[in-house]
Automatic annotation (TrEMBL):
Gene3D superfamilies: Hypothetical protein PA1492. Residues 6-100 form the DUF7768 domain. It comes from Massiliimalia timonensis. It comes from the Bacteria. Pfam families: DUF7768 (PF24963). InterPro entries: DUF7768. This is DUF4406 domain-containing protein.
Length: 142
């Protein structure tokens, strides 16, 4: 394996749920192929077991997804702007100081993304742009 062992795939679920589940799985496959590591996208599977329209079930699933970040050493963010669920994942990844892998709609090679580590000068700026905010929260939001 390369520099990463497990990368969390952060992409939208809300909206067209079936299509976004499919995309999440595709993104995980692309991350695995490009980085030669495991890639997890729990939101690509969770809607089979929960109702995204049910606020309580949705919140449980978001907490589960955020918890999955504890097993990861990087986060790949696909698509902008970030949804509310993505923002919670991004916030937690920031708190953990995980490297961010910024991707467009597809990832075919290492040249299709930008990697920003917590030691990089632009780390906080990148996270603020992803969260669309001026100030980053320093403590856990969930």
């Amino acid at each position: 394996m390369g520099a990463f062992q497990v990368i969390y795939v952060c992409s939208p679920l809300s909206g067209n749920i079936q299509e976004n589940m499919k995309k999440a799985k595709e993104y995980a496959g692309q991350v695995k192929e490009v980085f030669g590591c495991r890639a997890i996208a729990p939101h690509g599977h969770l809607p089979k077991f929960m109702d995204d329209a049910n606020e309580k079930e949705r919140e449980v699933c978001i907490r589960f997804c955020v918890g999955c970040l504890e097993c990861c050493d990087g986060i790949a963010v696909f698509e902008k702007p970030a949804t509310d669920g993505m923002k919670k994942e991004i916030q937690r990844a920031y708190e953990m100081k995980l490297p961010f892998i910024l991707c467009c709609e597809s990832l075919h090679s290492i040249h299709d993304c930008v990697i920003v580590a917590s030691v990089d000068q632009d780390y906080e700026k990148v996270v603020k742009e992803l969260l669309q905010c001026d100030v980053l929260m320093k403590e856990r939001s969930l």
